[in-house]
Amino acid sequence: xxxxxxxxxxxxxxxxxxxxxxxxxxxxxxxxxxxxxxxxxxxxxxxxxxxxxxxxxxxxxxxxxxxxxxxxxxxxxxxxxxxxxxxxxxxxxxxxxxxxxxxxxxxxxxxxxxxxxxxxxxxxxxxxxxxxxxxxxxxxxxxxxxxxxxxxxxxxxxxxxxxxxxxxxxxxxxxxxxxxxxxxxxxxxxxxxxxxxxxxxxxxxxxxxxxxxxxxxxxxxxxxxxxxxxxxxxxxxxxxxxxxxxxxxxxxxxxxxxxxxxxxxxxxxxxxxxxxxxxxxxxxxxxxxxxxxxxxxxxxxxxxxxxxxxxxxxxxxxxxxxxxxxxxxxxxxxxxxxxxxxxxxxxxxxxxxxxxxxxxxxxxxxxxxxxxxxxxxxxxxxxxxxxxxxxxxxxxxxxxxxxxxxxxxxxxxxxxxxxxxxxxxxxxxxxxxxxxxxxxxxxxxxxxxxxxxxxxxxxxxxxxxxxxxxxxxxxxxxxxxxxxxxxxxxxxxxxxxxxxxxxxxxxx
Amino acid sequence: xxxxxxxxxxxxxxxxxxxxxxxxxxxxxxxxxxxxxxxxxxxxxxxxxxxxxxxxxxxxxxxxxxxxxxxxxxxxxxxxxxxxxxxxxxxxxxxxxxxxxxxxxxxxxxxxxxxxxxxxxxxxxxxxxxxxxxxxxxxxxxxxxxxxxxxxxxxxxxxxxxxxxxxxxxxxxxxxxxxxxxxxxxxxxxxxxxxxxxxxxxxxxxxxxxxxxxxxxxxxxxxxxxxxxxxxxxxxxxxxxxxxxxxxxxxxxxxxxxxxxxxxxxxxxxxxxxxxxxxxxxxxxxxxxxxxxxxxxxxxxxxxxxxxxxxxxxxxxxxxxxxxxxxxxxxxxxxxxxxxxxxxxxxxxxxxxxxxxxxxxxxxxxxxxxxxxxxxxxxxxxxxxxxxxxxxxxxxxxxxxxxxxxxxxxx
Lengths: 508, 411
Prior knowledge:
The complex is a heterodimer. By secondary structure, chain A is α+β, with helices and mostly antiparallel strands. Helix content of chain A is 38%, strand content 29%. Chain A contains nine helices and 23 strands. In chain A, the strands form six sheets. Chain A has a five-stranded mixed beta sheet, with no helix packed on it. Chain A has a four-stranded antiparallel beta sheet with strand order 3-2-5-6, with no helix packed on it. Chain A has a four-stranded antiparallel beta sheet with strand order 10-9-12-13, with no helix packed on it. In chain A, helix 3 runs antiparallel to helix 4, helix 4 (65-82) packs antiparallel against helix 5 and helix 5 packs antiparallel against helix 6. Chain A is elongated, with a radius of gyration of 41 Å. Chain B is mainly β. In chain B, strand 23 (280-287) and strand 24 (292-297) form a beta hairpin. In chain B, 52% of the residues are buried. The chains are: A alpha+beta, B mainly beta. The A-B interface holds A 409, 412-417, 419-420, 422-423, 426-427, 429-430, 433-445, 447-448, 450-452, 454-455, 458 and B 9, 12-13, 15-20, 22-24, 26-27, 29-36, 325, 352-357, 386, 388, 390, 394, 396.
């Protein structure tokens, strides 16, 4: 309920802002910029009242809440420099106005904390001033010490009270630069850097950004505008996009019951083009949309896009009994991970969803023993396997055994051939009888010795070969190991002030 | 790929495979039995061989060993297996025969299984050991002692053959069990000159008559001449009238010791002469009147000879122990078989035997014999410390005809 209220309030503010932005003439922006620039200069010169006034003037010209924050920051610094409770009070007021104007401010918590600290500081200063006056009994008036505006002529002014430790911890309050994104027509969707991150805001928008970014502005029926921005904390940067109409394009609005689901259009291999919710122009014709999210079955729909028409794709993703598999380990970046014989990740670390059930996980790395383990993946759990791959042991013993086997085998062949030669010669000579060998012919003994030696060599070669085969395939040395850790994943819908989505708890 | 390699390895192994038991089978298939020196004390075994007693199955071979002289017998079973019999005689301890002649004379009785070993007994006596298995000793007292030649002959008035021994210029027989003293001797002269025979043989003129003696002279004018003397000399000649030869012929070859005169039949002899000095040799057939028949064979290095009678053909087994076998280059020795008959000796051998794996100085053919084996005569050849028995034999003259077929039983 609270989010709905916030949403309605936001929409009202947005509508007011749009209407106001449309109402502002072009010179209003120039006036705001001039006041902003002068205020920045005054701040740097320590003219905090002038700086604050400049930012207020800028807000009057263009009501960007950030101007109010900057005014507050100027008063904040004035108060800090002189321990001026009045300045602190003005800072508190400006900060509150800022939060009133931008209730969804990203730095809301920080600003609220600053308000609290400054209010305590005001009270502390006043308490100390009261105590000082009482003890002096000089009747110097009611002005606080150091204000410079009262009791100055007494000649006995109270020295300024040093900022409290809490104030010091807040640091210096500095004015922020401001980026303003406007479009004509307004109410266009703003994406920051990549559409896959999802919508960032709608035009007009103002706020602060750090670093370099790409602003993508998209509106149904209009050409997409992309601009790079480089945030300058001391400047007011205004991006005005004049969007040209494209009547030949169609418009798709893709939503899913699971926010942040990946959207693929026509070709999955190019990767996700964005995340739900997504609205964008698209060329007319037949298109295929896939919407997927971890833990859910993939949604698939084909749409015939018609020019200048809106096509709504509402993906209902059904939960699938999947769990996460997270393969990590030393040197895993050079390893390839397979699940059930299919490539899961070309390189580690590998975090993938797998269907609930048993899977054979194999991790291979050149020159290392593969790790294979049958792992049961449970739904809504993350099974983390920390792999320690053992180096593949040297096979020199197998090579030596093969060489020996070959040697003995070769020797056996040579000896056997020699024995065969003796046998054949003797056979021939016995048959021919010219001259006939006698029963004590030494070739009988030699041939027998060669034959026995050949048989022995074959036997040794066979044993050695078997040993070599064993050496080749035996699992020598410590095996590759994996430390399996299963963590429960709990996804639940979560609604909060200004946000909605899935929350996850991790425990192990 | 692995399968292919496996098949290649198996094929190579099959090529080289050879069961060692095949050699045992092959050894049984050989038709030349070889027996190395058995357990006898002689270190020079087989200096002389002769056929032994005839057995109903198999056969017996007498083998004489030198360097610790021994008499031993190898008994061959009907399948060709051999073993040393138990009647080995150590000649030194039993007969005081310390040294044998270089080529001891062992004769085979032509009518019985007896053999006669004739050796120099020293002390002015020649020892003649006769018998079959069990030997009887005869002492022939002569001086000086020299065993130059010997032969079996049928003496006058005897029904059995007895050895006749030539020593120097006399011959002496062993007809007496207890010879008278002095032993009756006879000098063989040619016109008053001692012929000093180095070979003796006989011409058997009839079964009931005394054999005439053929002597091959080696001295003086008789050197190289063959003489035929009447058999009466066996009982000693009546001095002073020694018998005159009834026939003579100059063979043109002076025989050395160990030469032989072998009877081919009743009217033909084969003379085998050799002398060690120049390795000259002679094989020649003569008739009873000492006329040469046919051509001669004079291949050098002949040392021993024996007659082989297969029943259809006679051969002379001629041993050439210093000869180089074909394709060997080693002086291991060969044995040649020449056909002999009343028509003479063939000039080309019918068979050439040698050790298939010859060793240098093996002296294959240093002694030869024809041995009855399973009732058939087979060739026996002696080499240094090894005896070869040819249980079947083919000609090697290109015809490859069997000289005799398989003689072993169970083949």
